[in-house]
Amino acid sequence: MNKQLQIERIEQFLNDHGIDPTETDIPALVDGSLHFDENFSKIKEKFGVKSEEELMEEIRNWEEREQKKRKEEFRNRFENSLKQVERNGKQVSQYYSQTRAYVKAIVNGGPDSLILFSRPGLGKSYQVLSVLKEEGLEKDKDYALISGYSTPLSLYHKLYRNRDKIVVLDDVDGITSSRKALSLLQAVTWSVNGERIVNYETTSDKLEAPSQFEFEGSIIICLNRASSLPELEALRSNVEEDE
User: What are the protein's UniProt keywords (predicted)?
Assistant: First the structure.
């Protein structure tokens, strides 16, 4: 074993046993230039060793104990990780089953709106689109996928153009910070006298649709985060949720 590694072993050993290694000339021990008794009075008192050989034997025993302890800790962490993966796997599987059941219900004339809340990466939109495809629906004919959110006016235009389809809003977390956009979605999901009337009051010449229309389709909203805006709470009260 090289000298530097020997020094590091002894330093680790002393630190672990509450002895400041800077108070001992460890390199001198390794070099053999000074007598054991001149440098290791504190170590002798703590461990009762009488020679350098006894000290190194004590260090070897300590290293074996530390290695065994590290292996045990690793095994425990590994087993706990497996249990966590198993628990998460069951939860994700249940989440997928619920999500797919809700989407199928929308396709088959059940609720006309659904909000999916979950952390990113769980495959909300994938599951939704997979069910729509399995049910024989065609993109742009039976359903529309709207990815991303820009402005309330843009959202209004897209809702109007797809007013008789299943509209899937994906990656639209920006909506949760816009009162105007949330109000539009409230109108899409809230029926008054059997009609869901959506309107957009503006004097802008950028409006490319009627200022009011009836939404007759369904809507599925995929979100990664919630919002403290009361409009979102009102929207959530109108629709089916899967979290």
Answer: Coiled coil
